[in-house]
């Protein structure tokens, strides 16, 4: 019992020492380094608290996150719905395949300037560019997932007179689920990048805009505070996604674990 | 064969319909908006072919993407083998990489521009950061995937260390590394363009921002077409190389019906 406990403690220490050393090294080095681009970490954290907790939270952080959420939600719903449709209809797939692959290969950040041109700098531009860029990973993953559903299952469902709604909800969606979630994860990362890019390119509101503006006016501490916030958000958004994924796909992960053991 | 022709035929139809709809929208209801018609975009593309500036920008962008990719592959391989072979190294690095991996490189772009300026070097560094963690985890997963029984068997057949690595560890890890390289190569082009569009480094991305700012809409849209085609080419080439290199692996082999 004692040794197990000690071993577990050792493992936790083994996981924690590097991050702790890195942060401590950064703290100590930056406190006395006097490097213009690397201000003391304590200053960055102070500024972080002043800026984001909570004076700019409502004016800049919330709008960014709202655009991200709406854009990603649109991309997911449209991507999954279109994906099921295209995945099930062969002629539609042949018709749209080259176009979809072209659009997927076009980086979202590259079409931000065009969306700015057409829609201006407002929230509608940001939401639409996020939705459009995040659409394609989910769309392609859903098409592949729907196509890989066992045709015998589909035939059986038909034999048992499951109607279209039941076939989609009880067969296609769970069957394609693992691939859909893989696509959604890429979509979410794309959405996050494009959220930042849409703010950096000409907007004055949002975390990305504030961070880039701080860099351009050499407000180094402000810039660092923005980078820290974006980094933490990027990490937390992924954690949130994994929690949701586990709720929906727990059955699948369990199945795979059993199959692999 | 006819099935295949039908597929290609429909694909061509899809592209044609898109172009026609675009043309009708742009000359009709959206005529006063900042769009360019199909012939204008095609004309801009034709002009690119003769334009030395275009080719040097293209070279610039590809160079940044390629150097960054090669560096991240080298770094990822070294770190990945280290982490895959040693449990201590794996556990030590786990939290740090788990935290850093989901953070996109665009987040540190402002810092890099501040330190390195709007230069190709900045772009290369950004591509490197964007790829190195992915390749490291892919390599580590591949190396850790080696079956210990196979390794023990090789040991009892007196294969020496070099043989064990070249015959067992490398073939097991290679498919994982190949997947990592493919993900990172597609990302490398995107990140190189980000460093140009937002960071202002020289290359096609910067050309596009300039074209957009000066009202050269035909060039702007033509460059977007170039980006899409480049991305498709990279994906196609890498898929081809992967199939050739890993023809023996289960994920590539076409199934022989029993």
Structure description:
The complex is a heterodimer of chains A (261) and B (258). Chain A is mostly helical and 261 residues long. Chain A has one domain (43-260): MetI-like fold (Orthogonal Bundle). Chain A is built from 10 helices and no strands. Chain A has helices spanning 2-33, 41-55, 57-88, 90-105, 108-119, 123-147, 151-159, 164-200, 207-216, 220-260. The two termini of chain A are 27 Å apart. The mean pLDDT of chain A is 88. Chain B has helices at residues 2-27, 38-50, 52-85, 87-100, 109-116, 120-144, 148-156, 161-197, 204-213, 217-245. In chain B, 79% of the residues lie in helices and 0% in strands. Chain B is mainly alpha-helical. Chain B has a single domain (53-245), classed as MetI-like (MetI-like fold). Chain B has 10 helices and no strands.
Compose a concise summary of this entry:
Chain A has 261 residues and is an all-alpha fold. Chain A has helices spanning 2-33, 41-55, 57-88, 90-105, 108-119, 123-147, 151-159, 164-200, 207-216, 220-260. Chain B contains ten helices and no strands.
| Shape by Cα distribution of chain B | globular
Helix and strand run of chain B: HHHHHHHHHH
- Give the largest interface: A-B, 55 and 58 residues
The assigned CATH architecture of chain B is Orthogonal Bundle
Q: List SSEs of chain A in N-to-C order.
A: HHHHHHHHHH
Note the main sheet of chain B: none
Largest sheet of chain A: none
Cα Rg of chain B:
23 Å
The name CATH uses for the topology of chain A is: MetI-like fold
How much of the residues of chain A is beta strand, in percent?
under 5%
DSSP strand tally of chain A: 0
Distance between the termini of chain A: 27 Å
- CATH top level label of chain A: Mainly Alpha
Oligomeric composition of the shown chains: heterodimer
Q: Got a strand count of chain B?
A: 0
Share of residues in helices of chain A: over 70%
Number of helices of chain A: 10
Category from helices, strands and their pairing of chain A: mainly alpha
The secondary-structure class of chain B comes to mainly alpha
Please name the CATH architecture of chain A. Answer: Orthogonal Bundle
């Amino acid at each position: 019992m004692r040794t197990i406990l000690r071993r577990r403690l050792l493992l936790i220490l083994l996981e924690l020492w590097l991050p702790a050393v890195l942060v401590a090294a950064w703290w100590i080095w930056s406190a006395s380094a006097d490097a213009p681009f690397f201000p003391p970490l304590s200053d960055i954290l102070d500024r972080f608290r002043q800026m984001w907790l909570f004076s700019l939270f409502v004016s800049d952080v919330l709008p960014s996150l709202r655009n991200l959420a709406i854009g990603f939600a649109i991309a997911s719903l449209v991507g999954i719905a279109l994906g099921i449709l295209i995945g099930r209809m062969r002629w539609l797939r042949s018709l749209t395949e080259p176009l979809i692959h072209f659009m997927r290969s076009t980086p979202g950040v590259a079409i931000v300037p065009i969306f700015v041109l057409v829609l201006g700098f407002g929230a509608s531009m940001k939401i639409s560019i996020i939705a459009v860029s995040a659409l394609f990973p989910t769309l392609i993953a859903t098409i592949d997932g729907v196509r890989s559903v066992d045709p015998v299952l589909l035939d059986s469902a038909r034999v048992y007179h499951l109607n279209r709604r039941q076939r989609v909800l009880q067969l296609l969606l769970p069957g394609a689920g693992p691939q859909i979630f893989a696509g959604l994860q890429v979509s979410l990362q794309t959405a996050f990048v494009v959220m930042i890019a849409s703010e950096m390119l000409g907007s004055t509101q949002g975390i990305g805009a504030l961070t880039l503006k701080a860099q351009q006016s050499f407000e180094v501490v402000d810039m660092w505070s923005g980078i820290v916030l974006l980094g933490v958000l990027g990490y937390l958004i992924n954690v949130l996604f994994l929690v949701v994924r586990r709720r929906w796909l727990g059955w699948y992960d369990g199945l795979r674990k059993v199959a692999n053991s | 064969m006819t099935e295949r022709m039908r597929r290609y035929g429909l694909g061509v139809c899809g592209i044609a319909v898109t172009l026609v709809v675009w043309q009708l929208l742009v000359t009709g209801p959206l005529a006063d908006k900042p769009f360019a018609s199909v012939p204008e975009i095609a004309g801009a593309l034709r002009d690119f072919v003769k334009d030395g500036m275009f080719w040097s920008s293209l070279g610039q962008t590809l160079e940044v993407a390629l150097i960054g990719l090669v560096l991240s592959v080298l770094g990822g391989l070294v770190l990945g083998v280290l982490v895959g072979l040693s449990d201590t190294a794996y556990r030590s690095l786990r939290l740090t990489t788990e935290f850093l991996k989901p953070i996109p490189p665009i987040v540190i772009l402002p810092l890099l521009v501040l330190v390195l300026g709007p230069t190709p070097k900045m772009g290369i560094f950004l591509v490197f950061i964007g790829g190195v963690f992915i390749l490291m985890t892919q390599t580590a997963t591949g190396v850790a995937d080696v079956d210990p029984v196979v390794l023990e068997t090789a040991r009892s057949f007196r294969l020496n260390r070099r043989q064990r690595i070249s015959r067992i560890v490398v073939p097991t890890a290679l498919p994982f590394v190949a997947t990592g390289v493919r993900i990172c190569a597609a990302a490398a082009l995107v990140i190189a363009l980000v460093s140009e569009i937002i960071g202002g480094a020289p290359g096609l991305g910067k050309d596009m921002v300039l074209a957009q700012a000066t009202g050269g809409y035909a060039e702007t849209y033509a460059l977007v077409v170039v980006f899409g085609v480049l991305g498709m080419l990279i994906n196609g080439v890498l898929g081809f190389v992967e199939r050739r290199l890993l023809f023996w692996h289960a994920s590539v082999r076409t199934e022989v019906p029993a």
